[in-house]
Structure formats: C-alpha cells, structure tokens
Design goal:
Blueprint (H helix, E strand, L loop, with lengths): L2 H8 L3 H18 L1 H4 L18 E3 L2 E3 L10 H36 L3 H15 L2 H12 L3 H10 L3 H14 L3 H8 L4 H37 L11 H8 L8 H28 L1 H5 L3
Antiparallel strand pairs: 1-2
Helix pairs in contact: 2-4, 2-12, 4-5, 4-7, 4-8, 4-10, 6-7, 8-10, 9-10, 10-11, 10-12, 11-12
Length: 286
C-alpha cells in the first residue's frame, strides 16, 4: 500500500484526521518557531510583567500576555514546543531501541539469556520511576540529555513485553525455520525476519509513548527534576506560572492547554494507527 493510500484510509476517520492536523500544526510551529515568534522569548521587561492576553504595549500586541518577567508567553510557548517534542521523540527512540532489542532476544531465546532478561524486566517494573529520576538528577544534575536518558531507560518495558510475546509466536513460523535451516545466524534472523513482523506493534506503541513522554517531561520539569530552568519547556512554563494562577492565569494555563491538545492529538493518531495496523481490528473497520 502506498503512503498516499494509507493516508486516505487514515483520514476516513474525522477524529483521527483532526488529531493528525493538531500534531502537524504543533510540529510545524516547533520547527519554524524562530520565524513565527512575534518577540524574543528571553527578552525581559519588568514594566510589562503579567500583562493580560491582547495587551498592546511597546513593540506590539502580546496575544497570550506576558509572564512574571515580562516575557511574551506566545513566543515562549512556540520555542518550548521544540524542546518538549525533542524530548518526547528522542526518549521514545531510546526506549524503543532498548525495548525492541531485548524483546526480540527474550522471545527468540527462551534459555538462560531470555530468562535473565525477563527477570531484568520484572526488576525494572518494580523500581518506581520517580525514585530513579531523583537518583539520576541528584548524581548527574538536571540537563536535557540526562532527562532523555532517564525517560528512555525507564520506559522500555512495554516495548519488550509486547515484542517478546509476538516473537514467541513468530519464531515457530515456517519462514524462521527455513532461515535457520539455511544457516542464517541468530542476529540475521532477528534483524531480517522477526523485526519487520513486529514493527506494526512498535509503531503503535511509539505513537502513544510520545504523548506519555511529553507528560512525564512536563511533570518532572514542574517538580524541578527535568531540564534546567533556563531551557524553556511547557513544564517549566507551568512551574513558572503556578504562583500567579489567581491573578495571571494565562501564564500557566496556556502551556497546559498546549500539552493537553498535543497529547490528545498524538493519542488519536496512535489509536487510528492501531486500528489500521492490527489485522483483527482492520477486519471490522467501518
């Protein structure tokens, strides 16, 4: 099926098409933020602090108001989208690479190696995410790279369990037996025969995990455990505005709305991909 035909099938659901439009819009704003921002997101002016949305003062109109340091909220919202999406996608790549690799090995090798990795998976599930994040930040300090690694290393289990379950079935299929009979190595069987057959599930999980990573980044940044305060993210913006909710609600509300719409859009896209890529759900598609 061509990409255009797949897109047409995807857009048969207006709900999924709406979610895709939201995601495309957010990605577009994140990519072209330097050209779309009406003001310098780091420019401070105490005279303009906590101006309401639509304020026309100085160089132009602040459509979403200003924060406690007089910075334009709309400009910071745009530049923050770049960092939040970068963290979401990069951490999914890290967790997906770890989880898919371990899942394939666990499913194909049910001897000591597979059982040992399965025990590691159970141990990972027993470690609270927040405790691990606190430990890493305390040792390494808050930074963008550290946050991506924490999110990636602590969220690979879902990939591993799903891929393992599918690999247990696939390894007994005829094409795997044929490849083994022809002398194919274990790595070749995993890479050329098992991985392509589990990619549909991996794509669906990844699309849903991006939304989860954005939420986790926002939560950690709100608690001061994410990126440094000098790096603008949606979570940092909410943390900056939490003390002004009573008299300047827009400072915290606008990034919160951005997170809500982005997560909803990604989840709608992920649900539609699941419907199209899962053979059982594809048969009952209307």
């Amino acid at each position: 099926m061509s990409a255009l035909a797949f897109l047409r099938r995807f857009c048969r659901s207006w709900i999924a098409a709406t979610g895709l439009a939201v995601v495309v819009l957010v990605v577009f704003v994140a990519v072209f933020a330097p050209y779309l921002m009406p003001f310098n997101p780091d420019a401070q002016d105490i005279i303009l602090r906590l101006r309401p949305p639509g304020s026309n003062f100085g160089e132009g109109v602040h459509l979403l108001g200003t924060d406690a340091l007089g910075r334009d909220v709309l400009s910071r919202l745009m530049i923050s989208a770049r960092v939040s999406l970068l963290i979401g996608f990069a951490s999914v790549v890290v967790s997906g690479a770890i989880g898919v690799t371990l899942g394939l090995v666990m499913g194909y090798d049910d001897r000591w190696l597979g059982r040992g990795l399965m025990a590691l998976t159970d141990i990972q599930l027993a470690v609270p995410f927040l405790v691990l994040a606190l430990a890493v930040v305390a040792v390494l300090g808050p930074s963008l790279i550290n946050l991506i690694m924490v999110l990636g290393v602590t969220n690979w289990v879902q990939y591993a369990r799903v891929v393992r379950a599918e690999s247990l079935v696939l390894k007994n299929r005829e094409f795997v037996h044929a490849a083994r009979a022809l002398g194919a190595s274990t790595i070749r069987i995993l890479w050329r025969h098992l991985l392509p057959n589990v990619m549909s599930s991996v794509i669906v999980i990844s699309s849903l995990q991006v939304a989860k990573m954005i939420l986790l980044e926002s939560s950690l940044s709100f608690l001061g455990l994410g990126v440094p305060a000098s790096i603008p993210t949606w979570g940092v913006m909410i943390a900056d505005g939490r003390n002004y909710v009573a008299n300047a609600w827009w400072v915290a509300a606008t990034p919160g709305i951005a997170i809500f719409l982005t997560v909803i859009g990604i989840n709608l896209v992920g649900d539609r991909l699941r419907d199209l890529l899962d053979p059982k759900l594809r048969q009952v598609e209307t």
